[in-house]
TrEMBL record:
Sequence ranges assigned to domain Glycoside hydrolase family 65 C-terminal in this UniProt record: 699-758
GO MF annotation terms: carbohydrate binding; glycosyltransferase activity; hydrolase activity, hydrolyzing O-glycosyl compounds
Family statement drawn from the similarity comment of this UniProt entry: Belongs to the glycosyl hydrolase 65 family.
Name the UniProt record assigns to this protein: Maltose phosphorylase
Occurrences of domain Glycoside hydrolase family 65 N-terminal (ranges): 14-268
Active site per UniProt: 490
PANTHER family in the record: GLYCOSYL HYDROLASE-RELATED, MALTOSE PHOSPHORYLASE
Biological process (GO), any one: carbohydrate metabolic process
Superkingdom, taxonomy of origin: Bacteria
Binding residue positions for substrate: 358-359, 602-603
Domain Glycoside hydrolase family 65 central catalytic: 323-690
Length: 767
């Protein structure tokens, strides 16, 4: 059974009732972020039971020394980790001389959490009976400001219910934190300076090795019934890495005592003097005040939702799922800074190190292209261009390649490879193809070709050189083969001729050669500059083309399908439907040896190729390959269900498309893979968006025009979405009777709907 405690709601994630067994899962699901920082939904007050503490700052990482049982040549020296940042949310609380701790209270009732996605805040409320008999009602609201993105705000209200209460607040900032996933149980933060003010405090620390400097700050205000009572701390305790203030108050039964805490981080990535920067942030936040900060948060999220919202009528769980996905994507990455990227867990956990994977290019860029200004997607491409030298170094030093061949890292923070599993690090090389495809996809969607001559061509050349050298000629087959790889299906390692890898390798070479010719004709100065810089000759391009034109692809003529790899049909082909449910998920129940020998697929490689290159294949080919591989796919990759949903919709398998949509949209809310306590699957959430827009909406870009083939699940009454296509905002509304297309503006847009041209105009309602 999947978890089923999140209450269905159109705009909020809601939990009712306190259950210690759910705490870590809820810490993930109720996480908040603003692109610059984020945090799990940890309690502000003491909690002595099991919890996963986590606050994170974008771009701040630590090179944790790789830990493996057997070192192999070429292993990365470290695994980059997003750091558990210093804690600014902490507020120890004493009520009538007893510490507030939900784990030790004699009763907790009316416990409720709400993550309000429409307005961008997280709220927790409960009533508790302490061991000393004091009964209290608590309401806590927290948000991370989108406009003032170095600041977060907490408003913590306590109302004694059965007697007057002495309430002692002990807010603190603490840099003495550790990561749950530290390889060697090292501390990652070196304390530098502590500064104390009247109601504010600062702890400055820097990371060991990488020397990122961070000032963590707080400013406290004590209120009674909403009025500032101008209380100063009675005591101030500090160590080299922690400052804690104590405020004592007395509040009558039925009255409300509150602490408002402003906190956050200023980092050396953005400030020469992080302490001065923190003082400035506090002044800005205090001058605005809590109410204005909250209103600006509501306004900022309203602007985001105006463009990125998808509405679904008649299916609350489906509606809640897509909004949760869109909300988390916008919390994780704002697009302001090309030095940043999108980690698979975002700001919700430490798994995968918070680093950049191929997920960004394969899954996330379409969402950001369509719901933001195109500069946001261009920044994601620029991120990879800025790391091209490191990709060339990676191929040279770790794999022995030459002549500027580039292998982009499977996992990175700064361009260096930092993944520590051989079968992934050096075999899952298909990520190079996703990076090239993103350049093509960006140009196809935005119409902005300028990126290719300016930056993209160098990337494409480095990638083409890699594929040329990585392929080898088989005399037996009289074709080029690619040996010893892992495809997107990580349940097969070190296999030969993975269809997806071979296909995208050929495509990369062909695309690079085509762009070299196009740039030569249309941007001759850039062509000359780039070819001189990389020392590329016409003869070398011809050598590439020999590989591309003679690439081998494994097929089964009998089944009429492409083979996932040469030996796939040698496996015992027992379909998933015949697999005992008690054995799922297999990655948690089986030995790795058994997984690798099985036919079960984490995500289908062949279908990933059909997704990227849909126009290269017939509908009948898609049908045969989809039906074959779907029967063996266990979808234990978060990136799998969305592609299957899109392809099921294209094949008019609407029940299946809807089932996969629910799985991808509620993967974390319902904890399909029984791992949400580790964090949410942020990058796959972009696939949820695609499953509606590209799946049910049938959106494609062909020959510089938008194409649609709209469909609607029977469970829905209707749905709508907006896209920004080449600076024109198009709204698509689908119900069971009709589809309408309206343009925001006075300029018409010609689109193709079910093969027929349609002119979308500004909608004018006539009463």
């Amino acid at each position: 059974m999947n978890q089923d405690y999140i209450k269905p709601d159109n705009w909020s994630i809601i939990e009712e009732g306190f259950d210690a067994e759910r705490v870590k899962s809820s810490e993930s699901l109720f996480s908040i972020g603003n692109g610059a920082m984020g945090q799990r939904a940890n309690f502000e007050e003491t909690y002595s039971a099991e919890t996963f503490q986590g606050s994170y700052i974008a771009g701040i990482y630590y090179p944790d020394k790789t830990k493996v049982g057997w070192w192999k040549n070429g292993y990365p020296k470290y695994f980059a980790k997003v750091l558990n940042a210093p804690n600014w949310i902490g507020i120890d609380i004493e009520i009538n001389e007893e510490n507030l701790d939900l784990n030790t209270c004699t009763e907790v009732r009316n416990f409720r959490r709400e993550l309000n996605m429409k307005e961008g805040w997280y709220n927790r409320s409960f009533e508790a009976v302490l061991k000393n008999g004091t009964e209290i009602a608590v309401n806590v609201r927290r948000f991370l400001s989108l406009d003032l993105d170095e600041a977060g705000i907490i408003k913590y209200d306590i109302t004694p219910l059965n007697k007057d209460a002495k309430i002692v607040y002990k807010p603190y900032v603490d840099a003495g934190v550790t990561n749950e996933d530290a390889n060697w149980e090292e501390k990652f933060w070196e304390p530098l300076e502590v500064k104390k003010g009247t109601n504010e405090a600062f702890v400055t620390a820097q990371t060991f090795k990488t020397h990122f400097k961070v000032t963590t700050f707080m400013h406290n205000t004590i209120l009674a019934n909403g009025e500032n009572i101008n209380v100063s701390p009675s005591t101030i305790d500090s160590t080299i890495d922690k400052v804690q203030y104590t405020y004592g108050t007395i509040i009558a039964k039925g009255q409300t005592s509150s602490i408002q805490k402003i906190g956050g981080y200023t980092v050396s990535l953005n400030h020469e003097n992080t302490l001065a920067g923190a003082e400035k942030v506090i002044r800005s936040a205090v001058n605005l005040g809590y109410d204005a900060l909250l209103q600006s948060q509501i306004d900022a999220w309203a602007k985001i939702w105006e463009m990125s919202d998808i509405t679904i009528e008649g299916d609350v769980k489906a509606q809640q799922g897509i909004r949760f996905n869109i909300f988390q994507l916008n919390q994780t990455y704002s697009g302001k800074d090309s030095r940043l990227n999108i980690g698979p867990k975002g700001f919700t956990g430490e798994k995968y190190g918070g680093s950049t994977y191929w997920d960004t290019e394969a899954y996330c860029i379409p969402f950001y292209m369509a719901t933001k200004d195109q500069q946001v997607a261009r920044n994601l491409l620029t991120y990879r261009y800025n790391q091209l030298d490191k990709a060339i170094e990676n191929a040279k030093d770790n794999l022995g390649f030459k002549n500027g061949a580039a292998l982009y890292p499977m996992v990175t923070m700064n361009g260096e490879e930092c993944h520590n599993e051989w079968e992934i690090t050096h075999e899952e090389i298909h990520r190079n193809g996703a990076i090239a495809f993103a350049i093509y996809n960006y140009n196809r969607y935005t119409g902005d070709y300028s990126y290719i001559p300016e930056k993209g061509l160098e990337v494409l050349i480095g990638i083409a050189r890699f594929w040329h050298q990585r392929a080898s000629f088989s005399k037996d087959k009289n074709q080029y083969v690619i040996l010893g790889v892992t495809g997107p299906n990580e349940y097969e390692n070190n296999i030969n001729n993975n269809f997806y890898t071979n296909y995208i390798a050929k495509w990369c070479i062909d695309f690079a050669a085509d762009q070299i010719n196009k740039v030569a004709l249309e941007y001759p100065a850039d062509h000359k500059r780039v070819l001189e810089k990389v020392s590329l000759s016409a003869n070398e391009i011809q050598e590439w083309k020999k590989v591309a034109d003679n690439m081998y692809f494994p097929v089964s003529e009998e089944l009429g399908i492409y083979l996932q790899q040469d030996g796939f049909l040698d496996k015992e082909l027992v379909p998933v439907k015949d697999l005992d449910k008690s054995q799922r998920p297999i990655n948690q129940k089986w030995s790795w040896d058994r997984v690798l020998r099985s036919p079960y697929i984490k995500q289908a490689d062949v279908l990933q190729g059909f997704y990227f290159f849909e126009d290269h294949f017939s509908k009948e080919e898609l049908k045969r390959n989809f039906e074959f591989y779907e029967s063996f796919t266990v979808h234990e990759s978060s990136l799998s269900p969305c592609v299957h949903s899109i392809q099921a919709a294209a094949l008019d398998k609407m029940d299946m498309a809807y089932t996969f949509y629910l799985r991808t949209s509620r993967l974390d809310l319902d904890d399909y893979n029984k791992e949400v306590e580790e964090g949410c699957h942020i990058t796959s959430m972009a696939g949820t968006w695609m499953s509606i827009v590209e799946g049910f909406g049938g959106m494609r870009v062909k020959n510089d025009q938008l194409h649609f083939s709209p469909k609607i699940p029977k469970e829905w009454k209707g749905y709508t979405f907006k896209i920004n296509f080449r600076n024109q905002i198009l709204k698509v509304s689908v119900n069971h009777d009709e589809t309408t297309f309206t343009v925001d503006g006075d300029q018409d847009l010609t689109i193709i709907v079910n093969g027929n041209p349609v002119i979308a105009s500004k909608f004018v309602q006539i009463n």
